[in-house]
Amino acid sequence: MRLYVGDYLADTLHLSTVEHGAYMLLIMAYWQHRGPLPADDASLARITRMSKLQWRKISEKILVFFEKKDGKISHRRIDSEIAHANGKSLKSQKAGLTSAERRSNKRSADDEPRARVPDTIVQKNISPSSNDEGSSPADLFGDVPGDDGDQLEIGYSPEFEEFWKAFPSGVGQFNRKKGKGAAARAYANAIKRLVGKKPSNRPRAVSLLLASAKAYDAVTTGRDRDFFPKPTTWLNENRWTDDAVRAFLERGDDGKPNGSGIDWSRMGK
Fold it and tell me: What domains, with CATH codes, occur in the chain?
């Protein structure tokens, strides 16, 4: 229920603290009951948490805000608020029914049979957009043989295949026979992020990911790999920037720079 503080105070400035409390309790009971309250003193005393004697001492001041009829007291302002709330509720119900009907109609349309293209095939006539460098079908899947336009099995770029073989195997989460397609997409996106706006960065990006995968394998050798990230997660989270991987790439087994040729400061610029 909305409470208009200004209007309330303007009408009740003459009430004492106890009288304010009794009046507010009646207002709240009226709202909860959604209509008139019984007019007998016993009921009103119970609502206001008073004895009958206490209620009778203040009832004259409080009941002036109500109209008494047929053994009940009513309040015109609260009746107006109840009607307003009921109108909003009805409007919301109608809107909900309309929305449900639209969703039902949409589901019915979506349930129409459709031809499904298998996930493991790609058409030769797919062409990359001009601004999607680093993630075209050629980058992602390698060259697609054939010239008859038929649907063909997916292949992967030699660069990704080399990365895939170098990435460490895990006992639990990582199985080389699963998730290769997702990893290939993550690899293409990682290359794209590293290349940035300079296509000339691509050879360095390829070299970085391959070297990082080998470094990751080296620094985790002998450790429990059950909960190590899969290649897809590793690529999506830029894990080649982990301190352990970078430290390994920046030094040799003898503790000296390993001459990897990777310039970290230039990647992605």
Answer: 1-114 (1.10.10), 121-266 (no CATH)
CB 77 within 8 A of CB 44: no
pLDDT tens digits, 213-266: 898 888 888 776 666 778 888 899 998 898 888 888 887 544 444 444 444 444
Structure tokens at 219: 């620094």
Angstrom distance (rounded) from CA 244 to CA 67: 81
Task: Say which range, 116-120, 180-184, 188-192, 204-208, has the weakest mean pLDDT.
Answer: 116-120
**Order of all β-strands in the sheet with 67-69:** 37-38, 72-74, 67-69
User: pTM here?
Assistant: 0.40
Handedness of CA 154, 156, 161, 163 (dihedral sign): negative
Contact criterion met (CB below 8 Å) for 44 and 55: yes
